[in-house]
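# nightly structure sweep
# worker-07 picked up a monomer target from the shared queue
# config: single-sequence mode, recycle default, output format = structure tokens
# input follows
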Amino acid sequence: MILSVDIKKCIGCNLCEIICSIHNEKCVSPLRSRIEVVKVTEAADVPIFCYQCDDASCAAVCPVKAITKDARGIMVIDRETCISCRACAFACPFGAMAISIEGKVFKCDLCDCEPACVKVCPTKAITYQAPEKVAYKKKEIAAEKLLATNPTW
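# output follows
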């Protein structure tokens, strides 16, 4: 299972950031959230989070192998092994690795397979579903666009 976002549905309310910080850090602090809503334009807000990549660049560059995929398919950081070199933060192509005020790296761990952000998103912009469902939905969207540009089909 993975997190997915429908950018068109995101209203930039930041509830996902708030609940994430409460769930993980027991405080209201978007700076301590594992998800970050980035305002791209006045009309577009994009939640950024870890995609739990199969071939994760963050894990590949970690010199002490502190980032591994667990049995559930979640990329996890072993805090005891991590040396806070931050190479993973620079390697992540999505910017999903965060760095705390204390200099420690952290990322989305899917709230033990029950993502709090999904539960509070008022527009259901963030979902938690099987990767194949996410891929099929993208194909449906592409098909609708093709049909719209070629109505004679």
